[in-house]
């Protein structure tokens, strides 16, 4: 079993156990706020189950029908999880508004709080661990699952504070008010996950991945890498897909061009934490490149080297060579 599968299995088992505990707390108290917390736990379990399948699918090798691999399913997994969180928040708000007009008696508040405290501590610990491991493994699904558990833990802590106020201040309306606040918080959390998944499904530029690539390019650049531009980076699961134009001396023959592109590919793949697939378009240099070209003893140089242009996320992503002198 892969590391990702073990992590999502941990999330799934934890979610099932904590969901049962929260519903026990709801049945012994009748608290609307505790019901809100328990309802979100159903989402945790279903989302973790879908995450389990998406991790399995994302790990499958490329095939004829999926030449770019299966990593993009992680964005769909996060979309499902975000959508279910959003639906859970809506259900919680509807039930809260209903109970404003038709209140239900609340009992055994103290026992319910102890149970919720246990679930919140477990969720916080497991969520932190999943987020840390998700970032290190470059798994959007694991990271989203961990974030979801942390959101659940924070909302549970808020629930406990509200129940304490209700118990000692003798204010029964606090239960409904707290439930409404939790519902809004859960809705917003679902919205953020939906936004992130839609960005990935629409191939929105991954700024973090671009910065990572640009850093390594500047660190390991060679003299005959005269110019890199039109850089585009997308992360699908644990793989990155990188397109760019690489300007090389125009007197290189085809074998030299091939060797330099292979070197470019190998250097970045050795340095980047994610496995990368490159599509590199080779451009010939032009006289306008000479003022920032570092190639020594160039037989066709028309202008002396004047300055090194440091690549950054702004100039390297444009579809043009760096002709303009500063």
Automatic annotation (TrEMBL):
Gene3D superfamilies listed in its UniProt record: Cation efflux protein transmembrane domain, Cation efflux protein, cytoplasmic domain
The keyword Transmembrane belongs to this UniProt entry's keyword annotation: yes
Lineage of the organism: Bacteria, Pseudomonadati, Bacteroidota, Sphingobacteriia, Sphingobacteriales
Residue stretches spanning the membrane: 7-29, 41-58, 78-101, 113-131
Pfam families per the UniProt record, alphabetical: Cation_efflux (PF01545), ZT_dimer (PF16916)
Domain of life: Bacteria
Domain Cation efflux protein transmembrane: 9-202
Transmembrane keyword on record: yes
Identification of the protein by name: Cation diffusion facilitator family transporter
Keyword set, alphabetical order: Membrane, Transmembrane, Transmembrane helix, Transport
Family (UniProt): Belongs to the cation diffusion facilitator (CDF) transporter (TC 2.A.4) family.
Domain Cation efflux protein cytoplasmic: 207-285
Membrane-protein topology: Multi-pass membrane protein
Subcellular location: Membrane
Record InterPro entries: Cation_efflux, Cation_efflux_CTD, Cation_efflux_CTD_sf, Cation_efflux_TM, Cation_efflux_TMD_sf, CDF_Transporter
Organism name: Sphingobacterium kyonggiense
């Amino acid at each position: 079993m892969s590391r990702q599968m073990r992590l999502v299995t941990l999330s799934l088992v934890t979610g099932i156990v904590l969901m049962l505990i929260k519903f026990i707390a709801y049945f012994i108290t009748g608290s609307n706020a505790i019901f809100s917390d328990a309802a979100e736990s159903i989402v945790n379990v279903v989302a973790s189950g879908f995450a389990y399948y998406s991790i399995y699918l994302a790990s499958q090798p490329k095939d004829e029908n999926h030449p770019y691999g299966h990593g993009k399913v992680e964005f769909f997994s996060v979309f499902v999880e975000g959508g279910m969180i959003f639906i859970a928040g809506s259900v919680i708000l509807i039930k809260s508004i209903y109970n404003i007009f038709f209140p239900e008696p609340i009992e055994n508040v103290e026992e319910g709080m102890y149970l919720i405290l246990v679930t919140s501590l477990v969720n916080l610990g497991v969520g932190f661990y999943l987020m840390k491991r998700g970032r290190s493994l470059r798994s959007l699904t694991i990271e989203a699952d961990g974030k979801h558990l942390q959101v659940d833990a924070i909302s549970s802590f808020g629930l406990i504070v509200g129940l304490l106020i209700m118990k000692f201040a003798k204010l029964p309306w606090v239960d409904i008010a707290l439930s409404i606040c939790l519902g809004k918080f859960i809705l917003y959390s679902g919205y953020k996950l939906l936004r992130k998944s839609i960005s990935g499904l629409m191939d929105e530029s991954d700024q973090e991945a671009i910065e990572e690539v640009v850093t390594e390019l500047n660190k390991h650049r060679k003299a005959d890498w005269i110019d890199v531009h039109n850089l585009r980076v997308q992360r699908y699961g644990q793989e990155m897909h990188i397109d760019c134009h690489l300007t090389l001396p125009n007197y290189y023959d085809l074998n030299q061009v091939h060797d330099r592109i292979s070197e470019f590919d190998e250097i970045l793949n050795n340095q980047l934490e994610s496995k990368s697939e490159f599509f590199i378009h080779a451009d010939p240099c032009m006289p306008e490149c000479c003022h920032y070209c570092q190639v020594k003893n160039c037989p066709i140089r028309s202008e002396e080297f004047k300055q090194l242009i440091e690549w950054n996320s702004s100039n390297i992503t444009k579809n043009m060579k760096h002709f303009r002198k500063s």
